[in-house]
Write the structure tokens for this entry.
Amino acid sequence: MILSTVRAVVLDIEGTTGSASHVHDVLFPYARERFADWLAAHRGEAPWTELMEEIRTHTGDARLDEGGAVAALTAWSDRDVKAPPLKRVQGLIWAEGYARSTLTGHVYDDVPEALSRWRQAGIDRYVYSSGSVAAQRDWFTHSDHGDLSALLNGYFDLSSAGGKREPESYRAITRAIGVPADETVFFSDVGEELDAATAAGWRAVAVRRPGDPRGGAVPGHPTVPALDDVQLHRRTRREEETRT
């Protein structure tokens, strides 16, 4: 697949640049086991205070205590609820795991080369995931392919952009990065996210890794099994017309 007039790419993580099973089988249980210990260890500190207030706001219970906060976080984790307080504390717990070298972020083999190729072509590279910006940065900084953070221009999450199935979230990213919507390409494995991106005027490419139980195609979107199956060019429309 060849796409021209591309100035920015935005990448999902889970199932697109990294393994979904790594998230569900490694990262989520790692954080879930440590909710209570993390809150106890950081009690009274600014991150603890901010998190507790966010949990109380999200649950609607202004008097929720630390035990209730652990219960809420555990319930959200078990149901994979995209709750901002959950994503915040997961990121904080994972950061400690990355710092101790007990965690690494999984990245598919084709991703580093694709990011390098797009950087050389002058195409900006961003990540948009439901995980917190801090968690995203740690994922790529401590990846199993080494530190890839220099290959990325920035990160967006639920707090900075909004829900991934809402067109307005993609419009918010367009405003933030200053690249026209029709010159931005979004890569994701989720059809509803791709639908929202195209509704905001973006171009979208589905990624379905080999062995994905959902099948090898995403209805309504061009689908590839890896990023090296896509060639992106920054040439302008006028340059394209000149070439033809």
In short: The beta strands are 2-3, 8-11, 124-128, 154-156, 184-188, 203-207, 223-224, 231-232. Residues 84-99 form the longest helix (16 residues). The CA atoms of residues 77 and 145 lie 28 Å apart.
